[in-house]
Amino acid sequence: MRALEITGSGAPCGARLNPHVDRAHALAARWTREQGLLLSDVDLSGPRRPADAGIPSSPHSPGADPFRIAPGEEAPGPVAHTPDATGPGVTASAVRDQVLLAAWTHPDVPGAELALIACFEVWVAAVRGHVRRCSGAVAERSVAGLHQVLTGAAESRDAADPAGRALRDLRSRVAPSWRRQVDAALIDLLRGQAAESAGAAVSRVPNPIDHLGAGRTSGPGPWAARLVAYGLRVRIPRQVAASAAFRAVHDAFCDVVLLRTRNAGAPEEPRDELSDSVVVLQRHFGQSRARALAMLDDLLSWRAERFDELTGTGLPVLLAECADAAQRDAVLRYVQGLRDWSAGLLACRPDTAPRDAGQPRPAPRHTSNRVRLPEFFMPFDTRRNPAVDAARRHCREWAEEHGLLRGTRSWTPAAFDSADYALLAALTEPDAAAAELDLAADWQVWSWYADDHLRSRASGAAFRDRLADLLRDGPEPREPWERALVDLWRRTTDELEPRRRREFAVRLAERFEYRVAKLRGPEPADPLALLASRRRSCGAEFSAALLRHRHAAQLPAELFTGTPMRALAETFAEVSALRHDLLRYRATSPGPPRTPNVVAAVAAFLGCRPQQAVSLTDDLCTARLRRFESVAHWELPALTGEFDLDAAGCARLERYVRGLQQWMAGELRWVAVTGRYAGTGDRPRRVRRAHGRPGRPDERFLRRAPG
């Protein structure tokens, strides 16, 4: 295998043109016409690209046009179906560009596979252009129809639907053993197109971090990576694909592809798309387009250098996940394919290279963290449990009984009363009975104590191992936090069935496993990776499990494994993590925080000022609250019909979702009055509410879908 050749600066070193480019162009041109996707039949062979475009003639035919049909090649026949100008389709120049891009980015793929990849790229360009030209409703219907083709729900061969007909033809040409993987990648790509169209319909510009996150799951990067694997017939071992090292390579590659393709764009696409990377940076940072382009260049250069580092000097870390030589060879071929793709894109479209390539990224300056907190958005409301006074007395006695108030400065009797953890329980669980509220207040006390205890503990691994032993009813408790946990665990799980008991133990252990992992190493530079870790370590997933046990234990377990319910649980956990990181960021001393923090990671990742990072993190939180609203009001009604829930089941599901909403609202109200953050200016000034949105605790929101 040849050495990896691409430099981190983005220079197209080692880029090669596939020798089968002429044949692939002839086949792709004929296929586009036959499927009715050709919008313009002007000069199908296409003129030669200018010499200054950085694209040489085909290496196997010096001086020849790589896109002129070879002598003796059959000319494309007549168009089978004349496409509507408003329907999906591409121009002749777009066909040429997509084939050329495929030939540069897949230099080692055989001729037949290169033609198939080129046809896929032409189809994607046709669908993407159609979705962006259409209104929101039309685009949504188009994407839904194509999704049905991929899932097998639509079998009719409608001659008026060239995109669906072309997709069926492409799927039939994919090797059967790879069809499922290609279908999954296309479904993700279509999901991204639908989300992009929905955002454009309401003029919603995505947050820069969410923009990159969408690019890693449903953007052009995952699709390009899947085509690389298919063209080379490389299957990544499951344990390697699940490793952190592989995810880092995948994320860096997807970032580079997204930023480069969004920076260039297809010639026929509009340049003012709301999802364009330049527009995203321009709108959220309030900069001119020239300044946004400079920021994009800086971010692109850094992510390209990171990709080069991970697939160069960091390659041994990735290869260490392989079990044998065959797996190592597969990983090496795949990594080389990714690098060939990146180099080929630069060779085909030189304008995607950063303007300041080769210049080192300036180190982030750690200025004062005394930033202005935003007006937090909260569309939900809650009320205080009337048994709060009794809960205050109980949890104070419980904490003293287990020795929790003989610790650090934050755990003196005065500091405990000022924090008022019982009020947090009363606001997050306003409908709990007195005994349930006492238990909830005790869990809040222990959780905060354990967080503080672990933060100052020299050996986090010992804490984690001891926790696992205590949850298995192993050794006798020795320290105050151990005695308190044993009491809580007994009161919570004595009447639980073994399966539910194991679930609680896993959630609690996972929380501190991630906390310990963060103590072992430096703060991740990737805010999305850090947010995924914070989602597990902030304790919200354990809180959601408690709410599910209290309100929806009788509902089928399969209901909670579906996409809507997982989305609710994840957004609930991320709101809590982002909110606390915003509050803790300002409380830290100037400079990088000692514990991982999403706000600091955003500032370092984007190279922005602390106040800008705070605003972006708040926007991340607001986007997740809106996502929670959308799922609860539009996706859950269909879910109740899918699982055929009766009135009692719907009421249980509604209580569970209402409990999540009240928890998020109650936690924010507690922050405004607790002494936990007193003296630091960390309390939010006001809470932004959504006028006209459901927020009253007694308002019903769950309803069956029409029909």
From TrEMBL:
Basic and acidic residues bias (residue ranges): 695-707
Compositional bias ranges of the Basic residues kind: 685-694
Annotated segments matching region Disordered: 48-89, 681-707
Gene3D superfamilies: Farnesyl Diphosphate Synthase (1.10.600.10)
Protein name per Swiss-Prot or TrEMBL: Terpene synthase family protein
